[in-house]
Design brief:
alpha/beta, homodimer, 328 residues
């Protein structure tokens, strides 16, 4: 029997976790929990029960780690602290500014229940954070850069869809290649928001909508688009469905730093991701950290953690001996 | 008072550690230990004692972590187990095949003395190993690639210098760009040794030496050069000194992997380093892990560790609160 995992929430992320579990033979899916009517939810796995969330506590001794796959805006701030008292939990909370508050809420609950929680797991926050942190510890005298994309921003796509006259839309965030090159060349540029990323939008109009008006509304939308160079393409629903249904993403974390008695040597540390499916990659990270949460809990290491607190070996199904012999 | 560090061995690596300590205000250098006559060793720091290695045990209560900066061939297999009983120690042992044996020797000594040791710290083994391990845990269905360079290989430079007729030499290991591109494009190539790296040699001949003979000897040298496409340039000592005195290095760790119910999505994780000074970068990693060794020892976590066993937050001088608020 493997590590018994439960999935709470069956959107893109929940489906990704379901699929990632199949790639990790030391884990197994035991139940999917949903706010929907279980009979109306069709999951990919055979013979795995779908349970209404109201009955979730009946499962507290049958699940080793609950992977909470809700959204950061309203689901996770409520769900993760609520269930961290009864389950070891993992979430991908990504509202950076609210992480300290979320951490404290989850920590209190986990401590109360002798459970282990790991929050803000994924790639940013997550793998990108780790790389920022490692690079800062190694090169204290340096400068950080993060670029995102090319990839689909769900938040920006949603913002366009809320504009009157828009039937559907997809927005791609694109890093500015020349800015990236300046960083890699050690020029330590000071980059404005506009100099780092551009935004490209594919928009399907409702019948009779005015494209000029929609384009103007997009390009001037505060926070989302006004500080960027934005390109808008109007296309048909067929074209959007055919060419823009995937959810790719990725990006780059760089740190440049100096060493030497006279700071005469420059160094560049670069980490990058190129992902065909943002939710499936995030899910793969969640499952690896679920393994870590299980092991930590078995050792009596309770409370809330982040990726910074987890020794890398906990993520692997391999033994210390194996890792030292084959991966070091 | 900061974390009190000692340096054992004052070559390129020892000098790098000395310089890195100056960049980390929570650490301080308290002594340099050498096999040489202390009066003959001139170090960069003012007012720091240089001590003969025979007196090192007098310092066991005055040093929090001893950073052992010897070579992997003969120094570290003897020194690290020997001193791990009396000091928390860090080394950069890089003979991959002998890591399990070295680990056991150091572990026994550290356990005996209630000390904490971290071995094989640097970038490969070290940061590259970490990235291989994280990427494998996240993408279990995938393929690993490591490329080194462009950079100076000390081992290969030494091998050339041992050839009769050679006065001096520097060898650069260079990754094959087209092979890297194939990996990045998700082609999952099977690459031979020759297809991954080329070798470029800058050689100063002794008077009267036959360049054809030397070039032939280099290119056919077993293990070092025979499996590579090698270029040999004969240059003057002045040119070698002027253009090839630095010790740059770097490289790339990549993992490509698939996710999805039908493995329909591809992902690329890439980590790369571009280092002006290989020993100074390695030293910077050593100092960050010295901080970790000190903290772990204070917590009563004894024995031998590798980078896989150390939670990232231990490397940072910042608090958990700070890291969560600013780097996650």
């Amino acid at each position: 029997m493997g590590i018994r995992l439960g999935i709470l929430g069956y959107g893109n992320l929940g489906r990704g976790v379901e699929s990632a579990i199949k790639q990790n033979p030391d884990t197994e899916l035991v139940a999917v929990f949903t706010r929907r009517k279980p009979s109306e939810l069709k999951i990919q796995s055979q013979n795995i029960p779908v349970i209404n969330i109201k009955d979730i506590l009946d499962w507290k001794d049958k699940i080793d780690v609950l992977i909470i796959c809700g959204g950061s805006a309203t689901d996770l701030p409520e769900q993760t602290p609520k269930y961290a008292e009864f389950f070891n939990v993992i979430d991908s909370f990504d509202t950076h500014a609210k992480i300290p508050e979320h951490f404290n809420n989850v920590n209190n609950a986990a401590i109360k229940g002798n459970k282990t929680a790991i929050i803000s797991v994924g790639w940013d926050p997550g793998m990108f954070s780790l790389n920022r942190m490692y690079a800062n510890a190694i090169l204290p005298d340096g400068k950080d850069y993060t670029f995102w994309g090319k990839g689909v921003s769900q938040g920006h796509s949603d913002a366009i869809r809320r504009i009157e006259g828009v039937a559907d839309a997809k927005q791609y965030t694109i890093p500015v290649e020349s800015a990236l090159e300046k960083v890699r060349n050690g020029e330590n540029p000071e980059l404005t928001t506009r100099q780092k990323h551009t935004r490209e939008c594919f928009v399907v109009l409702k019948e009779g909508a005015d494209p000029n008006k929609v384009e103007h509304e997009i390009k001037t939308m505060p926070n989302y688009f006004d500080e960027y160079d934005t390109t808008v393409h109007f296309i048909s629903q067929e074209e959007l469905t055919q060419n823009h249904s995937e959810i790719p993403h990725g990006g780059f974390v760089l740190r440049t730093g100096k060493t030497g008695i006279n700071k005469e040597h420059n160094h560049l540390i670069e980490y990058s991701l190129k992902l065909d499916s943002n939710p499936e990659f995030t899910s793969s990270v969640l499952v690896a950290y679920a393994r870590a949460a299980f092991k930590l809990n078995m050792e009596g290491n309770f409370g809330c953690k982040t990726v910074f607190d987890i020794a890398p070996a906990y993520l692997s199904p391999k033994s210390g001996e194996y890792l030292r012999a084959h991966m070091l």
